[in-house]
Amino acid sequence: MGKYTTTLLLLILVLSLALAGCSGKEPAASQITPNTTSGAVETAAPLEETPASLGRLEGGTYTNTYAGYGCELDSNWVYYGAEELQELPENIQEQLAGSELGDSLEGVNQIIDMEAENATDLTSFNVLYTKLGLEERLAYAVLGDEGIADSVLSQKKALNEAYTQAGIVLLSMEKREVTFLGQPRIAVWTEAFNAGIPQYALHLYDFTRGQYGVTLTLTSYVEDNTESLLDLFYAVS
What we know:
The protein is α+β, with helices and mostly antiparallel strands.
């Protein structure tokens, strides 16, 4: 694994498709800017209830007050922060170029806040921010967890084609009830074969925080440890 793994590509595939169901296009000219020193995010958006902020990395501790959670990881984990994750590598850009999926990404304002990888357990997770317009925020508020999951599942055919383009065989895609931060949630779970290796991913969407939706994606290889990764997180305010 590395910081530009297929996991990152799949994260963006799922996010772009989910957002396409409700629009996914940037509604305003304001821009989110990472500040890896202070963790602050500058934005001129007038609709934001509270200032957004990126997560902070200090040693093995990740704290994200905007997303409302954090985790403390041991030395088996490697972190990558927002600043080094914003540029997609050329090989991923080439896979997306000219495709319907690639076109759907144009105009989408996203920030990859962090990625953490554990080469020992073959697991990883990512946190991604997506800019939301007023209409999108209202739509997602009505949909809730299950409605957003249904929106993703309704695009299963297109997602399967995207996986195929990336050389991955999608085996299963479904809603899954999980417990996160002590609360029942509904996530989107996928099972796939990546270069002959089983790959499992769990996607948790939270578009209620403000002008930026937050998606947590947890991925494991060989065996499905995605739900156990949820236990790494605790609530922060």
